[in-house]
Amino acid sequence: MSHQGTAIQKDNVQSASGWLAVLIAVVALAPIATFAADDPMIRIGVTKIVSHAALDADEKGFEAALASAGFKEGVNVTYDRQNAQGDPAKADAIARKFVGDKVNLIHSIATPTTQAVIKTNTRIPVVFSSITDPVSAGIVPKQSKSGQKSGTNVTGVSDLWPVLLQMETYAKFIPTVKKWGTIFNPAEENSVTHVKAMREAAKTLGLELIEVTVADSAAVEQAAASLVGKVQAITITSDNTTVANFDAIARVCDKHKIALFAGDVDSVPRGAIAAYGMDYFLVGYSAGKKAALILKGVKPGDIPWGPVEKFTLVINQKAARAQGVVIPAALLKKADKVLE
């Protein structure tokens, strides 16, 4: 991703944010006629591909946003929370269950689960979150660009990372290291998109990127071990299979003194030296604000989808010591948060 592309994207987001603010203000003045106190409980289906810190934070942020808008669990909302546990077939079954149950709204977290929902359902409102590229994944129409309306039953929040800026930042922690590794599941559309960007970033920065692919969680630790002796640093992208098993990668890196970096701040306490990324609670919170509009009567296809553009640098001193890295003082000074 270029700096210019990031700037353009921010302009689009600011425009969409302004539109959304006006819409929220208008809707807030209107009574919630569709879901009055004597109406049945609002039923929301929640489906995520796997449980890990980032996606769990996303889920909590979504529900916090709805609660702040007056949609509170046990009062006027019930949640049917489902976890596909990394299994596409289970994701399909969850989607069919929600359609059969005729839930009022679906919150789909991550690309594979959202693809399952879109394939199964064309009527129930869908709010997605934590999807890298909703267009290429077939979640929104090809003509619907970031910051625009989908015109369908779908809206949501994407999590495209600033990959070049991330790798530039991480390289400053270990400037003499030239061989980097990454691990990902090629069955995940989001991972393929991010790894492509990582290849381009590595080339731009004069680094060598060695890729290892995995098909499931059981293969992650072995994949990390396969990089021992080949790389001096590992960076993990928004791959749900590897992020769900981040602790296993950290164990290998600690043992063999390999510097480990993450793209989401929720993985830093689990053994990464640092992450220059987004807070997934805010990703979910932004999606929850869109869901509140839908529950107040706005059509999902009239609510622009787009990314969260707030990034944070979090550093883990303990992980750095375990992996034999001395963090430059300038980076510690720039950090938004330092874990000791």
What characteristics describe this protein?
Rossmann fold; 340 residues; elongated; alpha/beta; seven-stranded mixed sheet
Please, could you describe this protein's structure?
By secondary structure, this protein is an alpha/beta fold. It has two domains: 3-159 and 279-307, Response regulator (Rossmann fold, 3-Layer(aba) Sandwich), CATH 3.40.50; 163-277 and 312-339, Response regulator (Rossmann fold, 3-Layer(aba) Sandwich), CATH 3.40.50. It has helices at residues 3-29, 53-68, 88-101, 111-120, 163-173, 189-205, 220-226, 240-243, 246-256, 280-295, 317-322, 329-334, and strands spanning 42-48, 77-83, 105-109, 126-131, 154-158, 179-184, 208-213, 233-235, 259-264, 274-278, 306-307, 312-316, 337-339. The protein has a seven-stranded mixed sheet, sandwiched between helices. Strands 2-1-3-4-5-11 form a six-stranded parallel sheet, with helices on both faces. Helix 2 links the parallel strand 1 and strand 2 (77-83). The model is unreliable at 1-17 and 19-38 (pLDDT under 50).
Topology:
Layout: H1 3-29, E1 42-48, H2 53-68, E2 77-83, H3 88-101, E3 105-109, H4 111-120, E4 126-131, E5 154-158, H5 163-173, E6 179-184, H6 189-205, E7 208-213, H7 220-226, E8 233-235, H8 240-243, H9 246-256, E9 259-264, E10 274-278, H10 280-295, E11 306-307, E12 312-316, H11 317-322, H12 329-334, E13 337-339
Parallel strand pairs: 1-2, 1-3, 3-4, 4-5, 5-11, 6-7, 6-8, 8-9, 9-10, 12-13
Antiparallel strand pairs: 10-12
Helix pairs in contact: 2-10, 3-4, 5-6, 7-9
